[in-house]
Amino acid sequence: MTRPRVVLISMYVGHEGVPHAGGRYLLELQRLLDAETDLTMLTVGNQLNHEAATRPGIPGRMLLLGHEAGRGPVRRVLNRLAHLADTTWRHKRDPGMPSAAFVLGLLRSKEARAAVQAADIIDLQYSESIRLVRLLRRINPSARITGTFHDVMSQSFSREPQTTEDERRYWQGVARRSRAREARMVEQLDEVLVFSQKDADLLGNPLHTVVHPPLSDGAEPRHERADEPVVIVVSYLARDENNKAALWAIDHIWPLVRARRPDAVLRFVGGGASDELRTRVADLGPDGGVVLAGFVDDLFAEYAEASAALVPVLQGAGVKFKTVEAMCHGVPVVTTSVGAEGIEGEDLYAGLADAPEALAASLVSVLDDPGVAQLRSDRVQTWAQGVYGRERFRDIVRSTWIG
């Protein structure tokens, strides 16, 4: 049987040890498609992806496009214009635009265009890749094109801080333009995939396929009562919304917890901490009860030693993988409404609130009586391991991408 020819386009690459949840999703998808299809992955040739290309887990055939060395004045000018578009226009006028360097690289590369022209399926990951659907249709009118919305970006943009009138006008304008583009993208795709029914409802018709990210292999042990009152926050802190959430938790939630539990420790696990966050933690001193653990190789051990998991995000959109991951490890979860968004189940949380006082009270309740919270989390763990398991994910991918 001939294997389908698949072109996977993403501005990010999954690999072993990737520090963010979206990358871990891509790693699982890449591995499955690499094993069961004739896969070519196209990505932007920035420094981050060049480094990723040297690590285990990347597809057997991957092309890095854009940022190529210019040969002659015309190419040097084009490279410079692409760089300016990515660093100025993209960040100011259109934060959701695809990488101009990638588009230029795709148009330049005969190998990449040939792969797109020969593809049976073109799969687009993230909104910025899905923005290329019209261009890809012109290159290959007969391919089946699928798009996975990791987030509904119009919702994410609408949640950016808007404390001044200028900020309000700017972000509302960005969100409005993004909603219009999302509607056009949905119309042009053969299949739309989302991580939750909430995102499907935001994007509207036609019907979408909900694919739950594969966050559990079923090997996570039952969570035992932790010896110490440790609250864990797992996130890729280089992302702006995660950095802001960390600062908010330190300033507004943690002092309320420490007032009632002076022995409690707030432990941030994940790379990419900003200078501002490092300074804030350093200013608290060794007795402040806040630790920046950084990137760790063994998340199992971190979850095992935690009494509770806090997901304090106030911005962003889409399913928060960090919330589901904690559930899969059986750790009681305290989170905001944004952190719980798109996770459809009943009575899943040890605390669900947006006010710092309510979040702090929930954390203290778990620390004071971990047995009661653990009874719920044992049930939630079984549910999460089933809904967000790898086998279920693979079945959906095979039926959607492979047929």
Automatic annotation (TrEMBL):
PANTHER family: GLYCOSYL TRANSFERASE GROUP 1 (PTHR12526:SF600), GLYCOSYLTRANSFERASE (PTHR12526). It comes from Nocardioides baculatus. This is Glycosyltransferase family 4 protein. CDD domains: GT4_PimA-like (cd03801). It holds the Pfam family Glyco_trans_1_4.
